[in-house]
Write a structure and sequence with these properties.
52% helix; globular; two-stranded antiparallel sheet; mainly alpha; single chain; 4-stranded parallel β-sheet
């Protein structure tokens, strides 16, 4: 492995002594402290994958492997989480704290790796980059194995570097154990280990051609340690083959290399928002500088068409791993999510630290201020933004229902997170098997969906409900259920009249970069309910058993956020005076035929219909002016604009009632922008002052 370049001074040599150096280190210490806190802080409920992890890990140890045969992952993280929950409990904070500890363990490992790579200056730069990294913070607050994969990736590189220097048995055994642990944690470790093993084979052949028998022997011992790690994984091979044959992602497709690259870079900054994309590309720019940059006498930096020796191993590890995964994805139909790259993300951070260490003090201070400011915005969003709207759905059901009522989830992927926060006592089933909501059976998923009939399922659900109320929690954002859930809704709605319990939110409607599968910023979809026993005076009371619908979307790897559900032909469209409960911004109407909103050239268009229908004689919505386009509007059936409802009607909101819905969100965005600008300015001044 590369050794520090003696021509590049370390941080301690460049920082002046005394007060200014203490100020610069004090700023970095504060940033690290904030990053540590953010790795354990989020207000969101557990989303689909997190709830599945907890539900599988709470099983007896002997039942976890069989449950994972139906899930699609190796068992090491679930076994660790099982022991962790036995000690600390199953609360949201408790189950996420395991990933938080792994995210903390990344910091000292990254320091050691950076110091070994380029001296103390590179080590400090690596800590500065990762301290407020939205990627590291996010997966430090998620009950999944990705923070553990970052730890194993860094530990494996350090042991690999130690073994190249002196291939002692303890180091080789440690490398074998870390390699096996990575394979037992996530299957993407196979691609990284395959790349490293292939590189070692090439190095052995090259060393033998040069007559370097000692160098060839060292690399053969390291290769043997990697092979030993693979042998330790063989007991799980039958389960892997079963998962490969029967589980998969029928809702997704293989991604192109450009999609993989741009999605991963955006996710390094926190997702699809403008600040996050900018932060991701800043890190990518620093990484490119670390790959091709050269520092000249006098503090000048130039780009050379040759990869730096320090950066070469990491370039091969990152590039070849992503390329191999892309090829395998095309060959097997597997998709890609940016969190899978967690095993190589620490290497990208080290490359960015190499680039940042080349810059003069003033320029480096500006980049640090930018990294801290944009990272703080991403950390704030990770704390405040809900990853799932399970709480919204559960609150609507609890407010309108009673223990014993039937709750139906379509698709079944909405069940685990909602079941976790829903009050006990409800009878919960999932489509298509009337199974419990705790877990999702991914075995032959598409075949089971094709064999199911929504009408038959609706009849069974209504028979099971009897005289109890029925709540339908559904979404059409899942590609596998775009037609199934509306068909199920229509079948249930043919028997019981509707009523709305939840509303649409705008947070999930922003575009997402290609290749990004980051599960964040949920989109709640307008749902229909067929009655409830709520005490609200605005809701119509019905004498017969009722169905209530709760629309929501779980934006995990199994969801593609698109638009509002397309549900048609359940009841006749009411007149404007019959619309109820819309003055407060919550869409509650008794006719579940509603328009799909699509933004195109400043207009909202009705949904595309599969069959022609007669032109409606109702007035069409007028084109909104520039001041109204930012407001969130709620469209009545057949495109009738609620702002043009009959004046003086009991439930007809005016323009101000609808337009003011978006004002709190706009104020929050403005306040967040002002705080970010102020933080960037403050940190920039402090860092520049400390480096003078």
């Amino acid at each position: 492995m590369p050794t520090p370049d003696e021509r590049e001074p370390v941080l301690a040599d460049e920082l002046p002594g005394g007060r200014h150096r203490r100020l610069a280190l004090g700023v970095l210490a504060v940033v690290l402290a904030v990053g540590v806190v953010l790795r354990f802080t989020t207000r969101s409920a557990l989303w689909l994958d997190e709830a599945l992890s907890v539900n599988i890990a709470r099983l007896p140890i002997g039942e976890i492997p069989d449950a994972l045969r139906h899930d699609g992952h190796p068992p090491l993280y679930y076994v660790l989480l099982h022991g962790w929950m036995a000690v600390f409990g199953e609360g949201d904070v408790a189950v996420r704290a395991l990933s938080g500890l792994c995210a903390l363990a990344v910091l000292p490992l990254l320091w050691v790796a950076g110091r070994r790579l380029g001296g103390t200056r590179v080590a400090w730069c690596a800590l500065a980059i990762v301290a407020l990294s939205p990627y590291a913070i996010r997966y430090g607050t998620e009950t999944r194995m990705y923070a553990l994969m970052m730890v194993l990736g860094l530990a494996g590189w350090l042991l690999y570097d130690d073994a190249r220097r002196a291939p002692t048995w303890p180091r080789l055994v440690g490398l074998a154990l870390v390699s096996a642990a990575a394979l037992w944690t996530h299957y993407w470790a196979m691609w990284l280990l395959a790349v490293v093993a292939s590189a070692l084979v090439v190095q052995v052949a090259t060393a033998r051609r040069r007559g370097d028998r000692e160098g060839a022997g060292v690399r053969l011992r390291i290769l043997g340690a990697l092979v030993a790690g693979g042998v330790l994984f063989l007991p799980w091979a039958p389960a892997l083959l079963y998962q490969s044959a029967h589980t998969g992602t029928p809702w997704a497709r293989p991604v192109r290399p450009t999609e993989m690259l741009t999605g991963t870079i955006a996710d390094l900054g926190g997702g699809a928002r403008a600040e996050s994309v900018l932060l991701g590309w800043v890190v990518a720019l620093l990484a490119l500088l670390g790959i091709f940059g050269r520092r000249l006498p006098g503090g000048r930096v130039e780009l050379a068409p040759v990869v730096r020796p320090q950066a070469r191993p990491f370039v091969v590890a990152i590039g070849a791993t992503l390329a191999l995964a892309c090829l395998v994805g095309y060959a097997t139909g597997a998709t890609y999510a940016t969190r899978y790259a967690a095993v190589v993300v620490p290497f990208a951070v080290l490359l960015a630290a190499l680039g940042l260490s080349l810059l003069p003090r003033a320029v480096a201070g500006c980049f640090l201020a930018l990294l801290f400011g944009l990272g703080a915005i991403g950390g704030y969003r990770n704390v405040t933004v809900e990853r799932t709207d399970a709480r919204q759905s559960a609150a609507a059901i609890e407010a309108a229902g009673h223990p014993g009522d039937l709750v139906v989830y379509c698709p079944d992927q909405l069940g685990p997170s909602t079941h976790r926060v829903l009050a006990p006592g409800f009878d919960e089933v999932t489509y298509p098997d009337l199974a419990g909501p705790e877990r999702v059976d991914w075995v032959d998923y598409q075949d089971r969906l094709d064999a199911a009939d929504p009408a038959e399922f609706a009849a069974e659900a209504l028979e099971r409900a009897g005289d109890r109320d029925v709540f339908l929690v559904y979404s059409t954002s899942y590609q596998t259920h775009e037609e199934i859930c509306p068909a199920l809704f229509n079948a249930l709605g043919a028997v019981r009249p509707p009523e709305v319990l939840t509303e649409t939110t705008e947070r999930g409607s922003r575009p997402r970069p290609s290749g990004s599968r980051r599960p964040s910023e949920p989109q709640s979809l307008v749902a229909t309910a067929l009655g409830s026993r709520s005490s609200s005076a605005r809701r119509r009371r019905l004498d017969r058993p009722r169905l209530a619908g709760v629309g929501r979307a779980e934006l995990g790897p199994t969801a593609r956020a698109r638009a509002e559900p397309r549900l048609h032909d359940l009841r006749p469209t009411p007149r404007a005076g019959e619309l109820e409960g819309l003055g407060d911004g919550v869409g509650q109407r008794h006719a579940p035929r509603f328009a799909r909103r699509e933004r195109h050239r400043g207009r909202w268009h009705p949904p595309r219909r599969s069959r022609p229908r007669r032109r409606s004689r109702r007035p069409q919505p007028r084109r909104r002016g520039p001041r109204e386009r930012g407001a969130r509007t709620l469209d009545a059936p057949d495109g009738h604009d609620l702002r043009r409802a009959e004046a003086g009607g009991p439930h007809a909101p005016g323009v101000d009632d609808v337009a003011t819905v978006a004002q709190p969100e706009e104020r929050r965005h403005l306040a967040l922008l002002l705080v970010g600008v102020g933080l960037v300015d403050l940190l920039g001044r402090a860092v520049l002052q400390g480096m003078r």
